[in-house]
Each structure stands twice: as C-alpha cells, then as structure tokens.
Amino acid sequence: MARRPLPRILSSGTTRLTRGRAMARTAADSASDVLHPLITVSRGLRLLAVSARRKWAGTPKERRGPALFLVAACVLVLALMPYGPLLALVTVMALAAWKGRDRTPKRTGPDEAETRRLQALYDALVPYFSVPEDPDPLYAHGGEWGAAFGDHAFDDEGRLTRLELSYPPYFADGDPGARATVERLLHAKSGRGRECHFAWDQEANRLVMSVLPALSTSIAAQRFVTVPGETVLGFTDDTSVQRTVPVTADGETHQEPPVVWRTGPRSTEPHLLVAGRPGAGATSLLRSVALQALPHGDVVIVEGSGAGEFASFAGRPGVLAVESALGGALAALEWTARETERRLVAANAARQAGHPLPEDVKRPLWVLFDRPSVLAHLAAADGGRDPQQLLSVPLRHGRAAGVTVVVADHVDALDWVEETVKSHTPARVALGALPADVVESVLGAPPHTTPVPDVPPGRGYARLGVSEVLRVQVPATPDPYDDAATDAERRAVLALLPRREDDPAEQPPAGQAAARPGPAEPAEPVGPVGPEADGRTAPPERAGMAAPATVAAAEG
Questions:
Q1: What is the CB neighbour count within 10 angstroms for residue 294?
Q2: C-alpha span between 281 and 457 (Å, rounded)
Q3: Handedness of CA 7, 13, 16, 22 (dihedral sign)
Q4: Structure pTM?
Q5: What Cα–Cα distance (Å) separates residue 89 from each residue in 93, 142, 269?
Q6: DSSP codes, 307-335
Q7: Among 29, 37, 30, 52, which residue's Cα sits nearest to residue 102?
C-alpha cells in the first residue's frame, strides 16, 4: 500500500515573532547609544543624592542647624552672583557625569589561574621545543612563558580558546609526526572535547591554535543559490571559503559558507566518494545530492542496503530507476554503462560534423550508489558479477559524457569497494567521529583540526581534489517516510521532490501546471538495446529492466 505524503500545514507566526524581537533589540541598542550621556548624568545625580542623604544621616543633630545655615548662605550667594545659577548648574552636572561614569575595571592581562595554566603549558612544551646545544633557548625549564606566547584568549570557564606561540627554527615543523605530537599536547592541555584548529606558519616559526565553534545543525534541505553544475555538499567555517549563500534556518534567512562541489566537462573532481560510520549521514548526503540534481538532470539510484531509504524517489519525474536488489542493480548499472558509451559516440559525431551537442547528451546523468559493499558481498556469495565492475565506463569517461557517479559506504567496508572506484573519485567526504588516521586514509590528507569523540549526524570533513581539508556539516535531509525525523525536515524533503503525475494526492492545485524536470524523451526502442538501433539507448524500464516494484515482487 502506497504511503500518503505528509500534509502541508500553514506556517505559524514564529518567524514574525522572531523578526519582531530582533527589531525590538536593535531599537533598544540604538536608543541606549543615543541616550548614553543622559543615562550617565542620571546615574550620577542618583549617586550624589544617595551620598548627600548618607552624609546628612551621619551628621550629629547639634550640627545639622549650622550646616543647613551654611548651605542656605551658599545658595543665596550663588543666586545673587552674576551667572551664579548657571555656574552652579554646570558644576552639578559635571559632578554628576563624573560620579556616574562606568568605572568597571577592565582586565589588561591574564588572572592568576590563567597565568598558572599558561605556565603549565609552557613547561609541557619544553621537551619538544628545546635542545641542549641551544645557548639561548626560547623554551627552558624554569623559564617564563611571556617570551614564547603571544596573543591568547580564554573562555568563561578559564579554558584556552586561542593561543599564538613562537617556536625555535630548528624544530622539524615539516615533519607531520612532530607536528601531530605538539598538536595532541596543546589539545590535551587546553581542554579536551573541543575541536581545535592549528595554523603553522613555517616561514615565521609561529603556530596559532584556535578553538572552532560548532557548525550549525539547523540547516535543512532547501533550494540553494547555485548554478547548474554546482552541488552544495554542506557548510563549513566562514574563514575556510570566500563564498556564502543565503539559507533559511530556524525561521530566519542568513548567509552561510558552503562547500560547493563542481561537476561537468570542466571539473577536476567529476566523481564523489563518501565514507562514514553507521548513522553518520552518508545516505542523507546522497539524498541531498539527488534533490539538487533532479531539477537539471536524471538520476539512477542503487541502494545496496535494501532498507528503502530512497523509496520516496521511486516513480518521480527525472528518477530513471531506484534499485535495491542485485539483479536490478546489475541491470541499472549495465544500462548506465551503455548510455555513457552512446553519449560519447553522439558527442563525437556532433563535434566532427560541427554541430552542437544533442540535448539528451548535455543533460546530466547522476548515478548514486549507496552501500556497494553489501551487493558485492552478495555477488561474491552467489559467484556472480560485482555491480561495481559496471561503473568502470561511467567513472573513466563520465566527465566527457555528462555522467556523474557518487558512491557512499561505511568506512569499515571500504575494503569491498573496487579500486577503480577509489582511484576515480577525487572528491571525498568522511562523516562521523573518525580518528585522524582514518580521516587521512579516506581523504588523502590529514585534517587541520583535532577530531572530537561525539559529533552530530552529518558532521565530518570534505576534500575536493588536492585542496585543503574542510570541516563540513551536511544539511538535514532525512527520509520523508521516516517517523523518527522531525515533521519540518520531512516536509522540506517532500517539497523538493518532483510530484508524481500518477498520484492525485501530489497533484498541484487547479490552474497550476506541474513542473516536470524529467529526462529527455528518448526514441521508441526498436530491436536490441544499444547504439545499433537508432543511436540511442532506452531508459532502464525500456531496456529490459523491470521497475523497482516489479523486481522486488519477482524476487519475493
């Protein structure tokens, strides 16, 4: 029985209330800046009045009469003097401004506890940054930290959040092992459980350690401001990339720095490999990629786990096939290989004839393969062919044919992933709480931050080609049929899925046309599948492939 989509509900007034609070806070800050002199004088007058009352209460009763007479005489003299009242008013206002000024003491250096922490950190670094042959060591037992440490900052709990230090020129800062030892020491001494970033300046012999804030986990699936050929894998730190895109999170729209993966004939990273722990968000990343690819291309999905994570994509315009069985996966990937060859032949013929590329060749084709290790294990048990072997043609020639391959699997099952897949996927993403050596084995380079033991789903690292390793947080893109996900996230995914034409519950209102970003209509198949009929291959259903439901029924 088909599941009915979640109902659409009207948005509440949370956004309007949040915007009203922000405007009220801004107005209060502006009024405080404008009225600051008046507030200072008022506070001073209050303090002067309290001081005068306390002085009067402390005066003995026998002296209150003469004191009152003296004050009255002074007031009379000021009233008879030229400009006396004005001078008295100016004097009182000046005293009130002086009395009401902000006299909160400002810290100019670390306190005693912070000084002890810096000294302990200095002493711990002495064995790594000193040698006996140095006549004037920067780090020495019993030395002071002031000459070695520069700018530093602490949080409210007294833990280091930033530290800039100098090290001697003879330290082997080019050795990854020596650098990793110092990084582990600084991370342990500054407070565990936080993600620290280390920036080594080898020319100036300086190291800057900074504690990074947590990446936002409130960004759900939505339409990102990108051009065709760009895919947002997630979001990172604002200091790592020079681009921002508007996103909506918690009812507000703000700018976030994205990790953009570029595909197409000019891309240097045409294919992607995702690895992570179970529940780390690899399948959610594939779902996010599929949602971004559907408006401009066609998608073939192969789900090795068989858990129905992509059941919501079945039958959608632009989704050519969703296969979870071994036979269906082999048929879908075989058609993908033949389609890649057909596109290459058609593109070569068009270029030799001086004609533009056909529309069906220019339209991108995405192949999303989730958990190939499961199907590889099944194929090995049955003595059949591994479906990953059929990815050889799309991986090798997909960039020229407009075919993009995305493979995702568990990090402990990467041994089942074919070497062809690993060697042709220069774009890498590692998700979950992974040790630094595992992250380096997946991405090909160590991260510049210290991994933390507990991370939210979708949190990890990304590396595109030979660029630096970036922190990444994948947008929340759950299965819309998963009851464990929040209603807002499920509705966001359903809103991005193309509407099924055969489902009345998903039809748009009367008078509104349904957008169909589906595939280019192929020619009717005649004879065998392949380029020998009319130069085209048929989609999976027309090439002898059964639909996902048919395959499941046949194997059941």
A1: 21
A2: 5
A3: negative
A4: 0.73
A5: 6, 60, 75
A6: S-TTGGGTT-TTEEEEE-SHHHHHHHHHH
A7: 37
The residue behind tokens 């650098």 is: 179
Task: Give yes or no for a contact between 272 and 429, defined as CB atoms under 8 angstroms apart.
Answer: yes
Q: What are phi and psi of 200, to 5 degrees?
A: -95, 120
Nearest to 403 by CA among 349, 458, 346: 346
CA distance 421 to 425: 6
d(CA 456, CA 451): 13
Identify whether the C-beta of residue 281 lies closer than 8 Å to the C-beta of residue 431: yes
10 Å CB burial of residue 251 (0-12, 13-18, 19+) is middle
Locate the DSSP E strands across 202-346.
206-211, 230-235, 245-249, 252-256, 258-262, 272-276, 298-303, 319-323
Q: Greatest CA separation found in the chain?
A: 124
* Angstrom distance (rounded) from CA 211 to CA 191: 10
The closest alpha carbon to 239, from 474, 471, 473, belongs to 471
* Antiparallel, parallel or unpaired: β 258-262 and 319-323: unpaired
Among 476, 469, 418, 401, smallest CA distance to 440 is for: 469
CA-based nearest residue to 369, from 448, 292, 472, 285: 285
Decide: residue 108, CB within 10 A, 0-12 exposed, 13-18 middle, 19+ buried. exposed
CA distance 237 to 215: 7
Q: In 84-211, which residue ranges form alpha helices assigned H by DSSP?
A: 84-99, 112-125, 176-190
Location of structure tokens 């039958």: 315
Compute the distance between CA of residue 276 and CA of residue 286 in angstroms, rounded to an integer: 12
C-alpha dihedral, 255 to 256 to 258 to 264, nearest 10° = -20
Query: 370 pairs with which residues across the strands?
Result: 303, 408
SS3 state of residue 289: helix
Strand order across the beta sheet in which 196-201 lies: 149-154, 160-166, 206-211, 196-201
Asked if 317 contacts 498 with a C-beta cutoff of 8 angstroms, the reply is yes
Tokens of 11: 């948005």
* Inter-residue contact 464 to 261 (CB < 8 Å): yes
Pair 230, 243: CB distance under 8 Å: no
pLDDT digit string (tens) for the chain, length 556 residues: 444 444 444 344 445 555 667 777 777 777 767 777 888 888 888 888 888 888 888 888 888 888 888 888 888 887 888 887 888 888 888 887 887 776 665 655 677 888 889 999 999 999 999 998 888 899 998 888 988 999 888 888 888 899 999 999 999 988 988 998 999 899 888 877 788 899 999 999 999 999 998 899 999 999 999 999 999 999 999 888 999 999 999 889 999 999 999 998 989 999 999 999 999 999 999 999 999 999 999 999 999 988 889 999 999 999 999 999 999 999 999 999 999 999 999 999 999 999 999 999 999 999 999 999 999 999 999 998 999 999 999 999 999 999 999 999 999 999 999 999 999 999 999 999 998 899 999 999 988 888 888 899 999 999 999 999 999 999 999 999 998 899 999 999 999 999 987 666 655 444 444 343 333 343 333 333 333 333 444 555 434 444 443 333 334 3
- Cβ contact 166:148 at 8 Å: yes
E strand intervals along 411-455: 427-431
